[in-house]
Amino acid sequence: MNLLDLTPFDAHRTVSAWLAERGDPAYRVRQIAPRLWQRPVSQWSEATDLPRSLIDALETSSPICHLTPCARETSSDGTIKFLWTLPDGLAIESVWIPEGRRRRTLCISSQAGCAFGCRFCATGRMGFQRHLAPWEITGQVREMLLDTEFGRPTNVVFMGMGEPLHNWPALDVALTTLNDPLGFGIGARHITVSTVGLLPQLAKLAGRPEQFRLAVSLHASTSQRRERLMPVERKYNLTRLIGALHTFARRVTLEYVMIEGANDSTEDATALAEIAKPLGAMVNLLPLHPGGAPALAPSSSDVMRAFEGRLRALGVNVMLRRSRGLDIQAACGQLRVETSVGRGVAPEDDGDI
Ligand code: SAH
Ligand code: SF4
C-alpha cells in the first residue's frame, strides 16, 4: 500500500486498521501518520521513536515512495528548477521561486506532458504522457520538506507541466493533502490551481468548500483569437467559460500571455476589460517565454505597458508580471523541453484534445 497516495484521513484509517490486524497498540498511529506529511521521514528507519519490528514491517508493507532528483538548475534571480524522475522513468519538473523575504512559491506539475496543445507552450508541444498519481503531485512538496536547504513552501501553484483539472481525481486528493493540517497544512488561499477551463471539473473544484485560488488561462479576449492559440476553445468556448466563472462565488485571476500580433492590440485590451470587469477578476499579464513557441514572439515591453495602462484606465485590476527563471527555461508551462531535446526526443506536433 502507498499511504502517500491517500488523503491524511484515509491514511490514518488505513494505518489504524493495519496496526489492529497486527495486534499493535492503537496509539502507534499517532507516531506513524505525522511522518507522512507533517514531519516527513525519508525512510521509516528515521522514525526512531518506533520499535524496530514496526519499522521493518512498515518498510515492507508501505515503503516511502520518492521522486528521484535528476537535475537542478539555479537562475540568476534565485529561481531553482528541479527535474524529477518518476518510477517509470518519465520526468517532470517543479520550480522553486523565492519572492522577497517571506514568500517561497513552489510551482508543481500535475501531469507528464499535456494533452491540450496550446500553441505557445512547451509542455503542450510534448503531447500527453500520463497523469501523475496523488503522491507524485504532493511528492514535489514533500521532497522540498525533506531537503534542509528548502523546507515548506508558503505557496503552491499548479502551473508546472500539465492541466491539473484533466487529472481531477488525483488533484482532488492532492489538494486535500496540501491543505489539511494533518497533511502539509498549506492554507487554501495559498494554493492556486491554474487551468485552461475544463468546465465539468471547474464546477467540481468550485464545489469544494476550501477557498483554493483559481487562475484561468484566458490568453485571448475573443473566441476566434483564443482558438488560434488554444485548441481547447473548440470544446469549452470563451462564452461558456465566462458564464461558468460568473456562477462561482469566488474571485478568479485571468492569466494572459502577451504574444506579438496575436492578442496584444488596443481592441484586445478593451475586450479583455469587458470580460474582467464584470467578473471582478484580477488580470495577470505575462510576457511570453519564447522557449515555449519558436514561431511566436513576445510583445514588446512598450506594447505590454500600453496594454496594462489601457486595462487599468478601464478600471481593471491588472498586474504586469516579470518572467522568473528566464535563463533556466523555468517559465511555468514551459518546462522540461530542453531536457527532452537533450535526450534526443523530438517534441511532438501540436496535439488536439
Ligand atoms: N495547464 C494549466 C497550468 C499549467 S501552464 C494552464 O494552462 O493554465 C501555467 C501557465 O503558464 C498558464 O497560464 C500557461 O498559459 C502559461 N504558459 C504556458 N506557456 C508559456 C510561455 N511560453 N510563456 C509564458 N507563459 C506560458
Ligand atoms: Fe497544457 Fe497549460 Fe501548456 Fe496549455 S498552457 S498546453 S493547458 S500546460
Note the topology.
Layout (H helix, E strand, L loop, with lengths): L7 H15 L6 H4 L19 H10 L6 E7 L5 E6 L5 E9 L3 E5 L3 E3 L8 H5 L1 E4 L2 H13 L8 E4 L9 H12 L11 E5 L3 H9 L5 E5 L5 H7 L8 H10 L4 E7 L7 H14 L2 E6 L13 H13 L3 E4 L16 H6 L11
Parallel strand pairs: 4-7, 7-8, 8-9, 9-10, 10-11, 11-12
Antiparallel strand pairs: 1-2, 2-3, 3-4, 5-6
What report would you give on this structure?
The two termini are 33 Å apart. The strands form two sheets. This protein has a ten-stranded mixed beta sheet, covered by helices on one side. It has a two-stranded antiparallel ribbon with strand order 5-6. Helices cover 33% and strands 18% of the residues. The protein has twelve helices and twelve strands. The structure holds S-adenosyl-L-homocysteine and iron/sulfur cluster. The site of S-adenosyl-L-homocysteine has 20 residues, from strand 8 and strand 10.
Average pLDDT rating: 91
Strand order of the largest sheet: 1-2-3-4-7-8-9-10-11-12
Work out the number of β strands: 12
SS summary, helix count? 12
- End-to-end Cα distance, whole Å, is 33 Å
**Low-confidence runs (pLDDT<50, min 5 residues)?**
336-353
Bound compounds, each kind once, are: S-adenosyl-L-homocysteine, iron/sulfur cluster
User: Helix share of residues?
Assistant: 25-40%
SS strand fraction: 15-25%
SSE order: HHHEEEEEHEHEHEHEHHEHEHEH
Keywords for this entry:
12 strands, two-stranded antiparallel sheet, 353 residues, binds S-adenosyl-L-homocysteine, alpha/beta
